[in-house]
Amino acid sequence: MLALSRRKGESLILNNNIEITVLEIRGDQIKLGIDAPREVPIYRKEVYEQIGEANKEAVQSKGLKNLKKMLEE
């Protein structure tokens, strides 16, 4: 993991086309601004993990249904 220090108003550039700017610092919370192309998905980590879990469940559920169909034939 790369750890960087940034102050309010300072930015990072990722992959030449994504800019992350520190907008506000209030106590132990910071507000970030992200400027990225529309085709780049951006999720909070907890939401990203929920999407991954939902996808796993959907695949498993669909897989079981397909297996039952095969056994019935």
Low-confidence stretches: none
Tell me how many strands there are.
3
For the largest beta-sheet, the strand count, sense and barrel status come to: 3 strands, antiparallel
**Mean pLDDT level:** 89
> Which structural class should the secondary elements be placed in?
alpha+beta
How far is the N terminus from the C terminus?
51 Å
Strand percentage lies at 25-35%
Q: State the share of residues found in helices, binned by percent.
A: 25-40%
Q: How many H/I helical runs?
A: 1
Radius of gyration: 20 Å
Can you tell me the overall shape? elongated
Characterise the protein shown here.
The protein is α+β, with helices and mostly antiparallel strands and 73 residues long. It is 38% helix and 27% strand. It has a 3-stranded antiparallel beta sheet, with no helix packed on it. The relative contact order is 0.10.
In brief, what are we looking at here?
By secondary structure, this protein is an alpha+beta fold. It is built from 1 helix and 3 strands, in the order βββα. The chain has a 3-stranded antiparallel β-sheet with strand order 1-2-3, with no helix packed on it.
